Amino acid sequence: MTTTARQRPSADDPRVLLDEGAGLFEPVPPYPPRTEREAEFYTLGDGEMFLNAGPHHPATHGVLRVVMKLDGERIVDLDPILGYLHRGVEKLCENADYHQTIAYMDPLEYVASLFCEWPAVMAYEKLLDVEVPRRAEYIRVLTGELNRVSSHLLAMGFHALDLGGLTPILYSFIERDEIVDMLAAITGQRMLFNYFRIGGVNGDLNHDFMSRLGDWMSRATEQVAANAGLLNENEIFVQRNRGVGTMDRETAIRMCWTGPNLRACGVPFDLRRAHPYSVYPELEFDIPTRDEGDSLARYLLRIDEVKQSLRIIDQCLHQMPDGPVMAKLPRLLRPRPGRAFAAVEGPRGEYGIYAVSDGTDQPFRFRIHDPSFLHLQSFPLLAPGGLIADWMVINASLDPIMGGVDK
Amino acid sequence: MDRALKARLEARFADVSTGPIRQRHDETELRIRARDVPDVLRALNDEPAFEFQLLADLAGVDTGDHMQVVYHLWSTSSADWLRVIADDLPRDDPRAPSVTFLWPGAEWLEREAYDMFGIRFEGNRDLRRIFMPPDYTSFPLRKDFYLPDDAARSPGGGTRPMERTGAPNAVPAGTIRRTPA
Amino acid sequence: MALTGEGESRSSALVVPGSAAVGVPIIVRNDLWSAADPAAYDGGRASDITHLAEVEASGIAARDDARWSGALEIIPTKADYVLDLLRANSLWPLLSGLACCAFEMMSSATSKNDIDRWGMFPFRASPRQADVLIVAGTLTTKMAGPLVRLWEQMPEPKWCVAMGDCTCSGGRYKRSYSTVEGIDRVMPVDVYVPGCPPRPEGLIYAMMKLQQLVLDRRGHWPERAVGPTVPAGV
User: Fold this and answer.
1) How many alpha carbons fall within 13 Å on the CB side of residue B81?
2) In terms of CB atoms within 10 Å, which end of chain B has fewer, N or C?
3) Where are the domains of chain C?
4) A89-406: CATH homologous superfamily?
5) Which of C142, C175, C178 sits opposite B149 (nearest CB)?
């Protein structure tokens, strides 16, 4: 097979539609390849072509650009290009107080904001040796699990939307709207909650929240079953998902996968049980695991996790102790110089924060570890051999959120 | 705090660790030199006494004096997170060995450390920028890369509180923040 | 961020009522962005609409500058009004959710807050078919190129809504090294929706304001003197 270098068309070429200033949008970078992988990818084989998907495309996971090398409609290789939402959060956090960094964490994974704040406050609590009151821990778990339910239901809806099914997303958004309105009753915000504080949470539960939660919980189980029932046995959905994007155990561990994507490959690793934090040791719930490792398994696993989360919410409501919701801390926080790492199990996997403190009131280094970043890295392993439509399925089933990927 | 883990680490890695093995809350910390990273991590991954097979995070840190690469590992055999700090990377030309031979998933994490700090990972097949555009020339998370915040702290920044950030007021603008991390 | 141009106070023909109470507006030229066609947007002249009361008084809104009437010039007023009604009641947005605000945009499109009541349900995937570009989410310097390309691919008449703090002014990322502090640095904006993120009701209010703009022929669109914003030759 001869490999031909791709020629840039000249300005006289009739295929060039735009004038000199605008330039033809070439997926191939306008410089010689700088790395081995770039050289390998941006060299076309016989009969191959590039297709650029993104950064703006109807798949609603965010601004992800993917350059696909195609042989007909089969993907030969894939190069995801990130950075279209890189906002420099880590650098901004180095110039902000510890309390202010919590607010910077929300827009990372914006559907699961509480899980972005949680490891940050946990890391600071380690640096400050603060003990969080039990009621605050229960509230954190309760609101976190609500956030997980809403995130997974949205993931289910977007999974169907990316496959062309426009109805389940509407059902997902009904549930999501109810949950976020519930959370808005205590946090004040529908989306980027900014609710967790170092040493607890911002405010106690109130009557509005409890009545909405009670209403929702009374129908939650049937609603979730009904929403899942839209897709679980839908022939088209199952056929498009079964066997697509199959990942095996060992490769998933080597690619540093975490979360439902890893558990769908058969690895029962969940930080809530493997490395328990907060009050999870006192709660009874199972860790659903599936063996197949394909997109259908990931989808079904998320539904299973929603059911477990409903169990946890129920227990939290029954076991909620009384007490303060925030530890007493000085307003100006100067932790001891040192390092702390904290990780929680979020809807997409392990969210980790590594905080380095130098004794001042601003973090010295604030490292954010996001799970979707590593899931996207596996596109070149999962997509080749399949069709472009299969790539859409893989993208939807891995459920990345570009806010977290790009920080 | 897993004392047994500390004992095992001290026994095994006494020759390569550059400092005491510290423990705090649920984290154990091991410091090594950058050139020992492949051997140490391979030992931690393979040996049955350790079995640290999950790489939780790979971070670059710029301490102001030098750079570090920090690995966080998890194992079924221990309740602690293990933090391996590869110290002593010079700020001018930071180079570290890549761990992609062990965890291919570290490729993008190393790309990010390169993009943000300029740390060159030897052995990474794809060391190009991941967040910033490919023709960007600076490394944003280095301590000598200044945001407008630092301009606000300078004498030209103004005197009113709105114009100044909450940055440590004793630190003059343009200084590189240093810490013995 | 320091503004690059110095503030110039214009001695305009507008009469500012109660000038002791109301300060002289500072109008800063936008040097950071220019249209490919130098005659567009009044040739770069800063807008002299600084006070809403003046808009009514000066009769700008009532001016008939219907470029698009074409064959219907014989009956200019009524038919253009109908055209404007048609445009206002079926503004089709382009799916351009960049970040968190996209979720509130989607929430405003789904069952509970349904903007299909105003005709805006079809979120087009292709810019060629869209009327409104709702930029929802932080614009980074890397994404600015593709976003402007999307804007230029949209056919006239088109409007732009800056949704969320990040698109209005950079928001919480104003000090960052890689964000664009407000999309009005790269494209003309008709409606700004503050909020982080704005509630769906807020976006609906903004779309209703946009409908009002369309019907009143205000905003950037009627002020464009000549020609579309895409480069010649396309």
Assistant:
1) 27
2) N
3) 1-60, 86-223
4) Cytochrome-c3 Hydrogenase, chain B (1.10.645.10)
5) C175
Chain B closest-CA separation from residue A376 CA (Å): 10
Separation of alpha carbons A346 and A120, rounded Å: 13
Domain map of chain B by residue range? 3-122, 146-181
Q: Distance between CA atoms of A300 and A241, rounded to whole angstroms?
A: 11
Rounded to 5 degrees, φ, ψ at C5 are -90, 155
How do B120-122 and B66-74 pair as beta strands?
Answer: unpaired
**Residue extents of the structural domains in chain A:** 89-406
Q: In what order do the strands lie in the sheet with C159-163?
A: C93-94, C132-136, C159-163, C191-193
B166: chain C residues, CB-CB within 8 Å = none
Q: Which residue of chain A comes nearest to B141, CA vs CA?
A: A91
Q: Name the token pair of A277.
A: 């934090």
Element (H, E) at A269: none
* Higher per-residue pLDDT: A331 or A231: A231
* Per-residue model confidence as pLDDT tens digits over A162-195: 998 889 999 999 999 999 999 999 999 999 999 9
B3-122 homologous superfamily: NADH:ubiquinone oxidoreductase Nqo5 subunit (3.30.460.80)
CB distance A201 to A325 below 8 Å? yes
Report the residue of chain C nearest B151, measured CA to CA: C1
Task: Name the residue with tokens 């590189």.
Answer: B176
Orientation of helix A388-398 relative to helix A134-162, angle to 10° = 170
Query: Which tokens in the block code for residue C158?
Result: 């088109």
Helix/strand/coil for A49: strand
CB contact under 8 A, B133 and C142: yes
On whether the C86-223 domain is CATH 1.10.10.60, my answer is no
d(CA C65, CA C80) in angstroms, rounded, equals 10
DSSP states along B84-111: EEEEEEESSS-EEE--TTT-TTHHHHHH
Q: List the one residue out of A348, A288, A344 whose CA is nearest residue A155.
A: A348
Q: Are C142 and A84 in contact (CB under 8 A)?
A: yes
pLDDT beneath 50: ranges in chain C: 1-23, 64-76, 222-234
How many angstroms separate the CA atoms of A73 and A386, rounded?
8
Q: Which residues contact A214 (CB under 8 A, 6 or more apart)?
A: none
Q: Which two three-digit tokens encode residue C80?
A: 């253009």
Instruction: Write the Ramachandran bin of A72: left for phi over 0, alpha for psi from -120 to 50, otherwise beta.
Output: left
Q: Is A240 exposed, middle or buried (0-12, 13-18, 19+ CB in 10 A)?
A: buried
Give the model confidence (pLDDT) of C6-64 as tens digits.
Answer: 333 333 344 444 444 444 555 566 566 666 667 766 665 655 555 555 555 666 555 54
